[in-house]
Design brief:
The chain is built from nine helices and twelve strands. The protein has helices at 13-28, 42-50, 97-111, 125-133, 144-148, 167-178, 193-208, 221-231, 267-280, and strands spanning 2-5, 32-35, 54-56, 64-69, 88-93, 115-119, 139-141, 156-161, 184-187, 211-215, 235-239, 255-260. It is flat. It starts with a strand and ends with a helix. The mean pLDDT is 93. The structure holds FE3-S4 cluster (F3S). FE3-S4 cluster binds at residues 12-15, 71, 96, 98-99, 163-164, 192, 194-195, 222, 262. The site of FE3-S4 cluster (F3S) has 15 residues, from helix 1, helix 3 and helix 7.
């Protein structure tokens, strides 16, 4: 059996940066909180919790300490420390620079009078952060169907994307909106380059493999996106670790592809490969 591993594996730049910054602060400070999970991988999050990071939903009960803003950013209304109650909270911003770029664009577009449309998942923290930055003015579209039902009521519209969306979806939504004949329509491809490279490589591998294993958190948007792409070409399973692998999946399989999300530690590839070999023996 042949195993093909995507050349775009291990942490992306933004995730690695967020983990490094957090670990550096955990070494020199106490009372460090993260507003929601730092990244969408429970192994990494529990390892950081073991080192002292406390994950909280909000800062209501936090009196003092440092709060990490995760790599996918947050709604800015949450980063203003409450003044009442004598709290002293400082912030450590690990927002990925590519997410920050999308946030800056949203701000500029709203200030210039554009209706901002965001392709993405409205429940994802990155998208909630972008909507927060627009002060609730931006509208989130999940797919081309939602784009088609959008009334052409504004003269000036703009489209950006959650950094982890697929390029196909972005093009489909953009094309649908172009058909609406707005007077002015600005499109900004804010999909992360790392995500696009992972998607292109996953597509390439899925075309020649009998089975694809996509490793990554079940709550990771970019991992779910990779699984969706691979599924359109071949049999695909989204697993979180080697423990999820089933022996029966390997029956009559000659070529397995392994693809990982941007928040999956590189060592998980070796663990999955070892488990495949054990199951075949
Ligand atoms: Fe940043 Fe792209 Fe990773 S947006 S967090 S480098 S997936």
């Amino acid at each position: 059996m042949q195993i093909i591993v995507s050349k775009y594996s291990g942490f992306c730049f933004g995730v690695k940066r967020a983990i490094d910054l957090t670990e550096k602060n955990l070494k020199k400070k106490t009372n460090i909180y993260s507003l929601g999970p730092l990244i969408h991988n429970r192994w990494v999050v529990s390892e950081l919790s073991r080192k002292g990071l406390k994950v909280v939903k909000n800062l209501d009960r936090v009196k003092k300490g440092s709060c990490i803003i995760p790599s996918h950013g947050i709604d800015p209304s949450k980063i203003i420390p409450p003044k009442a109650g004598g709290k002293t909270i400082s912030f450590i911003n690990t927002t990925c620079p590519f997410v920050f770029k999308a946030q800056t664009l949203v701000k500029k577009l709203v200030n210039s009078g554009y209706e901002v449309l965001i392709l993405g998942d409205k429940n994802h923290p990155e998208v909630k952060g972008l909507v927060g930055i627009s002060k609730g003015k931006a509208r989130v579209l999940g797919d081309e169907r939602e784009a088609a039902s959008l009334p052409a009521k504004k003269n000036k519209i703009s489209l950006i994307s959650q950094t982890t969306q697929s390029l196909e979806n972005f093009i489909a939504v953009g094309s649908k909106l172009l058909g609406k004949k707005f007077r002015e329509f600005r499109i900004f491809n804010t999909i992360c380059k790392d995500v696009m490279e992972r998607q292109a490589e996953a597509r390439k591998i899925a075309k020649k493999a009998d089975l694809i294993l996509v490793i990554g958190g079940k709550n990771s948007a970019n991992t779910k996106g990779l699984a969706q792409i691979c599924r359109s070409f071949t049999k695909t399973h989204h697993i979180e670790s080697e423990r999820d692998l089933r022996k029966e999946w390997l029956r009559n399989v000659k070529r397995i592809g392994i693809v990982t999300g941007a928040s999956t530690p590189g060592e998980f590839i070796g663990r999955v490969k070892r488990r495949i070999k054990e199951e075949l023996n």
